[in-house]
Amino acid sequence: MNNDIKAERPLFVLLVAGIGFFVLSFVAMGVFPWLTIDRIQPPEVATNPYQDESGNPTPAGLGREVYIAEGCWHCHSQFVRPVANEEFRYGPRSQAWEAMFDVPHLYGTRRIGPDLSREAGRRSDDWHLAHLWNPRSTVPGSLMPGYPWLFEQKDGRWQPTDKALNLVAYLQQLGSYYREDVRKQVWPSRVTVSGAPLPTELSLGRGRALFGHYCGGCHGENGNGAGLAADFLRPSASDLTTRYLPREEVFRILFMGSEGSAMPSFAELTEKDLWAISQYVHELGKHNRKPALDYAAGVDRRERGHGLYVKHCQNCHGESGIVPPAMENLKPAPKHFRDRLYDPTYLVQVIRKGRPGTAMAGYSNLSDRDVEDLAAYVSSLFDPKLYKEE
Q: Are the C-beta atoms of 363 and 240 separated by less than 8 Å?
């Protein structure tokens, strides 16, 4: 009998311990939060994003229904935990009041894809549309399935349906209270770059591979801007074969991204990899340097173009081709002309037709001679002394 009691004692201890741990977890994770939830006050700006004042569903509310119906919550969580550097990766940790209008809640438990609770302003609408249509167009190697049934073809181009637009509206309001905090984290401030490392064949090969992985979906395999995402991007991805970009300028663009466009920041890549991509992109448009400088060589043409530049371009692009700080607030911001050169034919086309998706308007009222003179003056603003290459 004594042996039976000794044998049963550990089982009894384990039973009591199990019940004790259950009660402890129930109190810590259920009762205590319930008792303290009234103390958590949401900010005054918190309003129901899913209904308007009349109680009708907003685009975000309709998009939430699409998000649930398409099973997006299976792979994406919406909860930034206060552990393991999650705030560094995703943004400020989640607060209880953020889910006050979420019925049912969509916290999720799996992260096959990234957490989406701080998605507001992290990426542009056109990036999201391209990603929904074909995730590989913006994130090569992505495991996410495409959702082509949310799109339709019109005039030979893929166009989003209302369901796709509503879904993007829902994604863009997730964590909107923290939009500015996330913006500062995702879009680095302007940086000054100098002293590119010596180019090598090994670095060029590495840059080609990295470009194919990170950039080809938007810019195309050959850098001509005709990538898989071309139907959705406004502004369109740059045709890198039509411009001369010194390696320092490419590095700056890669590090900062271009807020207001689908071009993200790649600041998380190593410096060595950023220089490798910079070398490859530089080589794509290297042939434009001499023709563009030759185009700007005519003194009479430049002088005529100067007056046109002051009248039409100086406010946005700056007196000497450096964008004024106030114009940096445009998203995407105007381009600097001191640190890049464009193929003359491309430059004439942009002056004539503008750049859809940006503040750059077309000047169809200018004569052919005026457009060519203006293009020549813009080219003359480039300062070759800043980059001692070739």
A: no
